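Encode chain A's predicted structure.
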Amino acid sequence: MGHEASGVVHAIGPAVTTLQPGDPVAIEPGRACRLCSRCKLGKYNLCPQMEFAASPPNHGALSKYFKIPADCCYKIPKSVGKPFGLDEAVLVEPLSVAVHAVRQVGVQPGDKVVVFGAGTIGLLCAAVAREYGASMITAVDTSRDRLDFAHSFVPNGRLAFSTAIPTKSLSPEDNAQCLRGLHRNEHITKTDVVGFDVAVEATGAETCIQMGIHALRVGGSFVQTGLWQRNVSFPISTVSENEINVKGCFRYGPGDYKMALELAFTRKIELKSLITKIVPFEKTVEAWETAKRRQGIKTLIRGVGFAIEGENDHEATQYRPEYM
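Encoded structure for chain A:
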């Protein structure tokens, strides 16, 4: 199990020159073949021979030792100010997914963005969209607790931020109409185009996918980031009639990991606030059960053999990042 990972280099091969034992690293968990047409075109995330951690038959990073090519290890720079620990480095992986999604859909300064899902990926997509210049972001989820957390995680001084819970009794199209009305104001005339410029779907739920398409303005852009159902009912007529640009998003590609680490290390996106708790390897099942109950945002598992400070596993602040 496990594909979101960080660690300390234990040993290197004879040809490795960029890393040394003892270096702390964020780990990109996929090994592409580097030879196929997708890899040669710079689309290594679509490599048909990809060996991705925890994707059968490949074992994951939830182990004492994990072998990966050196260029999949991103050395964590030394911080002059607030330390950047291995606990935060774990979350560079989902942040890379968010970077890839935002780059795929082409968020630009001034865009109005709606994000479906306020879990880890949705929150990070909203934060990355903010850094790419979005002027307004609306987060949509069924959990009030997660939306309340989003209010503390996403906004900054210049961003117009709002949240919404869909009404169960309304159709996806009617709920989308409600969302479109969130940024109506006295300056918008009846002839103006109302709707979001960009929709980021991070749940995979059919109703959210439909809402996302209907919430867009004419000519808007949609990116599917969440994966759940293999097949869904899709409003293809709306896509065609409104010339909606639809993009897929699968993991991350060239430059996404580096960008994610830069955003995190420079504190433009604070990853530590996403960590609900950290448990030792021996309590791995507890971490899974916490996630299953949708408690908090991220529960981390500390690797085998690493020391833990304190008796209370529920306080992430009691763990020394360098022991992660």
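The chain has two domains: 5-93+255-323, 96-248.
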